[in-house]
Amino acid sequence: MDEKADLLQGTLDILVLRTLVTMGPLHGYGVARRIEQVSGHTLVLNQGTIYPALLRLEQRGWIGSSWGLSENNRRARFYSITRKGRAQLARATESWQRVAATMARFLEP
Amino acid sequence: MELRVIFARLFSRSHRRSANDIEDELATHLDMAAADLRAQGMSEEEATREARIRFGGITQNSEAYRRQARPPFADSIASDLRYATRQLRLNPGFAIVAVLTLALGIGATTAIYSLVQAVLLRSLPYGHAERLVYLYTPNPHIPLPPEVLAPSNADFRDIRQTNHSFSDMTQFSQATFNLSTATAAARIDAAKVDGRFFPTMELLPQFGRAITADDAQPGHDHVAVISQSLWHSYFRNAGDVLTRTMQLDGNTYRIIGVMPPEVQFPTISDLPYGSGSARTDLWLPLVITAKDAADRDNPNYYAVARLKPGVSIGQAQADMALIMQRLDRLHTVDVVGNGSTHGWGALIESVRDTAVGPVRSLLWLLLGAVCCVLLIACGNTANLLLARAAARSHELSVRAALGAGRLRVIRQLLTESLLLSSIAGAAGIALAWIFLHLLLRLDPGNIPRLQQASLNGWVLLFVIGLVLVTCLLFGALPAISASRIDLTASLKSMGTRGIVAPRDRGRNLLITGEIVLVTVLLASAGLLLRSYVKVSAVHPGFSSSTITFGVTLDSRYAGRGQGRAFFQRFLERIEHIPGVRSAGAVTVLPFSNAHSMTTLWVEGYRDNSKEALIDGAGVTPHYFSTMQTPLISGRFFTSADRDGGHVVVNQSFVRKYFPDQSPLGKRLRGGADPKLPWQTIIGVVADVRNESLDQPPVPQIYTPIDNIQSASIAVRSSMPPDAIIPALRASVRSIDSSIALVDIRTMQQAIATSTARRRFQTSLLTIFAGTALLLALVGLYGLLAYSVRRRVAEIGVRIALGASRSRVIAMVVRQGLQLVLAGLIIGIAVAFAGVRFLAGMLYGVRPYDPWTFLAAPLLTILAAIVACCVPAWHAAHIEPMRALRAE
After folding, report:
1. Any idea of the CA torsion for B331, B333, B335, B337, to the nearest 10 degrees?
2. Which residues lie below 8 Å from residue B754, measured CB to CB, with a gap of 6+?
3. pLDDT for A41-53, tens place per residue?
4. Residue B229: CB atoms within 10 Å
5. How far is B406 from chain A (nearest CA, A)?
6. ipTM, interface predicted TM-score of the complex
7. Quick one: A99 exposed, middle or buried, by C-beta within 10 A (0-12, 13-18, 19+)?
8. Residue A67 forms beta bridges with which residues?
9. Which residues of A touch B60 (CB under 8 A)?
């Protein structure tokens, strides 16, 4: 059970960091929406789970947050990636791609 | 969890979220989602609903968010603590009893530990003190303890040149000086030290310089290093002390250095057979001339060496033994006059062990005893907790039913225990402070560095450890047993109880264990008490109201007959003081830690040996009548006996040498050599205890005092000491104002000092045993009272069915006494196995003393019956109708 949670957690981390790199500073709802859209709605995300994940990434020093105003003038907390976050994303992307490639080779008919 | 995340959650403010922040952020999210959905054409209501669905469980997710925002475990620990506090507040009686019991145990243990820490564990103020060793050259031909035979000057120098084990070596001796002040003379305890003393001990002066080899040259030696306290008391902290001088025994000494306050070496407890007081205030150069340095045969000075790093005492001992094997051949003088010149060996002993060795077992004994008290306190608290857990079983099973895991329940219960032991620890520190001050008042005066005991950082660390350990000791068993919940059974009964309450095996075992500890403590205390009573009843052979003091003359009295003339004149003046009945002088006063041995050859005795040594002392004619030592037969000395042809012996002497005949008129001399003059026995006096009340008297001879430089003076007076002492001081001043009277005290005080350690240990152990008994009885009472309360229904049925009150009483008392008896039997067995550790501390009592081993259990049983009677009486007066209706 732990392994599965770790895997999912790690995946979510990459998705969040990647989203923040592409989109720039973004509020939690925006991050959740973006992940759903990019995954083509194949990933069913409980949007609420994004918030503990965001805070955890912030506590690791990979992202930062500050209050700002949304496109339709709502007070919202905006998250942005830090330098350490970009480095982490690069590391994680590389290792994820290696795993994916290995898996793909295995699963080739 | 990553360290960094834990750290951020614990300490970083910016990585937390306030409750408002979280609420705002999530509300915004839902609003945005709903707005998007509305834009896709959903109705207001549908959009809101769909937004919530997509968010997932709002409660869980926001709770997860909140948990991530708080320090790790903070939520559950805080709520556990809050809950624990509420539990304790709901039950103040329980909380107060538990905290007081534990605080008593923790406080007493902490106070004793602070003594152990100061005396045994804290390092001595000399750098790497464990490397300092005393050197001795024991000789089997000399019947003296090896620790009085230090290397001779020549041996010392040869060892220093040829050894491979020591980085430095020093010689020193103890001395006393009369310090002249404006008003009177004071006696100062001093050490004469060679130039390597301070480097070897690794002691540095606070300011000024230490004594060097140059100072120890004849003619350059009138310099002095003084202690902090002498600087304080005599020079009033003067800043220019290094330009000042002081008058010692009529000579002028220049001050060259002041030592820091912790430097007091050598003290009376640092040295084997040390004399003087608990501190040294003055260090002077020890001058050893070339002629002295070549002396191969007279061990005059203490020798201390510092082991090289990595060299063990055993290796150094082997090294020195080899050297002494070679040096032994160079010895040519028959030192004791018994015909042997060889046999000098090597012995090395740790300085530290010499100082604390005699008190180590005493302190560990006290710490062990007080730990027993603490264990009993833990036992009682565990019993209280077990009783409470039983009462809370319904609450606990509800918690379990709501999903609390077993570990979670144990954690909750242990949090309560930790809260209890922490409060008790805080109260215990306060109690320890009080106990420590009381303990230091009981200070027997001969435990090194006892007065430096304090509640320092190490002791406080010990308290924290104690709090955690006690928490586990009393909390673990109740927590584990309470967490063993049979859900269905417990919930079905809905908290009602059956007629017959279940047995509490755990609680019974605890009480039995407590009684075991109490029995062991009572037996030990009993043995020590009986020893103390026996020691106190010993008659010392002299009147304890005698006033005594010491007088040491200086070099001005070195001339022929001058010492004798001084003492004669002084004694005459004392005897003229109104209220003084008589006065006498003696070379070696009983209870003064000193010995004088001489060789002996008794005419007509079959087993005369060349090596026989006997205790001797010189006395003036009025000494025995002043001390009120009874004359058994013959006569005392008179002033006509000055020629040395007569001796007085004691009863032990007669028992050994003339068991079946009158010793009067028999002769003895100082050795086998026929040229030595004979001395005739003219009187027999009663045995006198010389060292302490618990050392049996030994054969002793007394001779008329000769021309001496130093003596103790005894004064028999019909007035209280305080009325006589000023007159004594005045009479010495009228002869010579630079001579000090030292150690002025009654023999009663001398005896009290010698028994002080025994009194200290006996009274403490008795207090601990008494406390332990009291605590165990409170525990027993608590157990029985609780068990009666739980069995109200059962007892009610018994009474209704015709059981008489006396039978109910007997039933309850029997339940209690069964536990006590089991504890007593095990306890006596344990005590029997353990008393041999006490054997060295006993006097006149065998370790398996039948009286003690009868009295201790008897006392426990009597006290236990009292503790049983109250609950039994309550049980007997249960109204059957009311008891049954109460269910």
Report:
1. 140
2. B591, B691, B692, B693
3. 666 677 888 888 8
4. 13
5. 21
6. 0.87
7. exposed
8. A77
9. 48
